[in-house]
Amino acid sequence: PEVGVTVVPRAEHPGYAMIYQDIENDQQTFSIFALLIFVGAVAAAFNLTARMVEAQRREIGIAMALGVPRRRISVRPLLVAAQIGLLGVALGVLVGWVISDAMRRMLEGFFPLPVWVTSFQPGAFATAAAIGFVAPFAAAAYPVWRAVRVRPIEAIRPAHLTRRVRMRWWRVPPRPGNTFRRLPMRNLARAPRRTLLTALGIASAIAVLTSLLGMIDSFLRTIDIGEREILAGQADRVLVSFDGMYPAGAPEVAAVLASPTVERVEASLAVPARLATAEGGFEVIVGLTDLKGSAWLPSIAERLPDGSAGIIISRKAAGDLGVGPG
Asked: Whole-angstrom Cα distance, residue 219 to residue 223?
């Protein structure tokens, strides 16, 4: 008797949902960023090794003309590709460990849990290292395989003549005008594969940068809007929450109301509630506020007629519920 009890399943507890259910959304976000960075890195490795093999095209053709086996010719550029992959993996694992340690410290400060288990995860790092080595190495093996498959006479020919034969479909038709105006476009069209790979790497970096900046900007803007709405132009406003419900004349409430450090005080009541429609709902905290004489008033976009009763909710909540004023 005289005791209220609320039973909340673990999956619906706000603390549980904040820590565990949000992990899936965070994982998807981090996976998208990792994929964009990975695509840019593979494109850069492919472009680098392709340029390296292309620079040694005549040497490869001469070696094939002298009878050197193609396998021996492929060893040197493949070893360079392996070095690039191993250095990238080593630096990636090191930087990844530093970032994960910084993330762990941030999460420990953000979620003050009594026990934290953050042991090193060798499986995750080994998987990332294996993928990070195989993908750039495979991207580097393709131009090497392509270079040793051509005839020696074609490999010895100058590179621009070879491109003109193979990339005839990409040729820019001659147009009247200044040579300096046509030169940039012809340079881009001279090696379309290299141009596309370079554009892909730059696009991946820009996509990651704009996504991170946009996400941070949205987060900060949300905080600024909430802070501006809560303070309502009063930067020194303070909210005092009790551990339970007390009458207005209780000693705990009287002590706060009689504090000499404040200019104006107002007692209010906040109770848990649930807003729901036939499609669904969510938990809220309903605060009782005098809309005429309160020390703090929310920004009301659409007012109800005088004398009508109702609950003031945000535009976002109204949109989620599919309701309007009334």
From this structure: 6
- Is the pTM higher than 0.70? The answer reads no
DSSP letter assigned to residue 19: I
Dist. CA 259–CA 3, nearest whole Å? 32
H or E stretch covering 264: none
Cα–Cα dist 256/251, whole Å: 9
Residues 44 and 50: their CA atoms lie apart, in Å, by: 10
SS3 263: coil
> What is the tens place of the pLDDT at every residue in 4-40?
887 888 877 877 877 777 777 788 888 888 888 888 8
Separation of alpha carbons 202 and 199, rounded Å? 5
CA dist 196 and 318 (Å) reads 46
Q: How far is CA 1 from CA 5, 151, 181, 243, in A?
A: 11, 94, 89, 20
